[in-house]
Specification:
The complex is a heterodimer of chains A (about 350) and B (about 180). Chain A is globular and about 50 Å long. Helix content of chain A is about 30%, strand content about 20%. The two termini of chain A are about 25 Å apart. In chain A, strands 8-14-13-9-10 form a 5-stranded mixed beta sheet, with helices on both faces. Chain A has a 4-stranded mixed beta sheet with strand order 4-3-5-7, with helices on both faces. Chain B is of the alpha/beta class. Chain B contains 6 helices and 7 strands; from the N terminus they run βββααβαααβαββ. A 7-stranded mixed beta sheet of chain B has the order 3-2-1-7-6-4-5. In chain B, α2 packs parallel to α5. Chain B starts with a strand and ends with a strand. Classes of the chains: A alpha/beta (about 350), B alpha/beta (about 180). β4 of chain A pairs antiparallel with β5 of chain B, so a sheet runs across the interface.
Chain lengths: ~350, ~180
Amino acid sequence: MTTNENVDNILSETSGLKMQFDPEISPDELPMSRIDNARLSQLVADIDGINGYSRLEQMAIVSMTDALSHSQINVRSSRCLLIMSSTKGNISLLNDVNEISQQVYLWHTAKRVAQHFGMTTEPQIVSNACISGLVASIVARRLINADFYDSVVIVGVDELSRFVVSGFQSFKSVSANPCKPYDAARDGLSIGEGVATLIVTANADICGANPIEIVSGATTNDANHISGPSRTGEGLYRAICRTMRGHESEQISFISAHGTATLYNDDMESKAIARAGMSHIPVVGVKGYIGHTLGAAGAIETILGVESLRRNVMIRTLGFENLGVAEPITISNQTRQTELHSMLKIASGFGGCNAAALFIKH
Amino acid sequence: MNCITQHIVRIANNCVSFDGDCLFSANRDDDFRTFAKSCYTSLNIEYPKFYKMDKLCKIGFLAFEFLTNKIDFSQYADDEIGILLSNSSSSLNDDCAYQPTIADVPSPAVFVYTLANIVIGEICIRHKMYGESTFFVSETDNREFLKQYATTIATENSARAFVVGRVEIDANDNYFAELEFLTIE
């Protein structure tokens, strides 16, 4: 689905999470958000030469083709960089551990994608758990501001696989029902897959109406636990503070938060947000629509937030009904038309990593 | 802004060197598990979490430990040192350990390590570091890119020094680790 189709569905509060049984992915029937294979095949058929590519590679190329068709950047320039954001890439191709295909390597995937578009610079891959997609924007901003590149194409992509779903299930962190971010009755995440492309450039003039500026961003670590978030939200709090440094007077319109709907993540976010003095700012969580898309999440959710800013529509946190987190933060629970100016995007992931970035509409 | 390499730790071929001098070495024929354990023992630290780590975390943790043993970090606040690491195989070594458990009883203790950035997490937990960090994947050593990126972080005063490097272990336990401690001037 294109950006517009996704946004239209979200604004009409239609969820992409559907109860599905797919033994390739899990022995259990689970709510999942999936890319429609028939639609993907159609789009793949319109692009030369990618028929034999892996599904994930096709997703990335289809997405980038669409994004680049609306952009004026010169993707072949030595001043253009590809950053791929993915947690597990082609992991579904890892079957026999004694005979590992080169396709399993993330660099191989990025290279294949870059070569398809005739890119001339070495791609970089951010593989940093669930914050990867947001980190890619933070990296892009810094590189462009320092004049190392004129434009950065970010593609965030992850697909559903038995590997990943079995892992999350082994943690008992997957809900049997569509996830309920920040809700008192929440009991785990919903899995999703997806791909998104963002084009970041130094030149605001080529960005069309209402260019969105990535004004600041930061990454931190909780220094606490490798799979559980900090009980005090220390890392995320520091990421927010560093991001807001120099922009303290910015009246943030909304926070696009991580909201996985696990007990610990949502509690931790509420603590970090409250500590930062932002309990009054509406929090939007979109995983009730698209599930947790892992390496693609930061990218997809940033785009949804950007569309929110452009259309002046606050998204409803689908799945949320009654506040059930440690701190009394404000959750957006209504789709509504309202003047929006800036977004703080936050994310957290395994390994105690956190990221935050501030986006302002011009 | 320029990156000044102050110190380098390298672990390869069952030998640990600091600024080119051999700090510790073991029998070339020792397998990784044996070698890693002997490194740990030689460090004389009490850190039982080491034994739960996957191999990528072990090699990264050890390299960082040998590095910090010889450097005084106390002049830096707990979020002033950035960590930028990369490799080409991501967490493939642990992915191969996890994959066979899927058909039987998927192991959360193994699954948690199927993300390369966990090595940064283990380092930050051990050394109480809250600063900037990111794990990248690239086909070949992208040290120049990491250093370029480090200067951009320093420019906005988000870090004063960095540990930058390559931490790698493939599906056959062939490993390599090299960490540079950089200051930015």
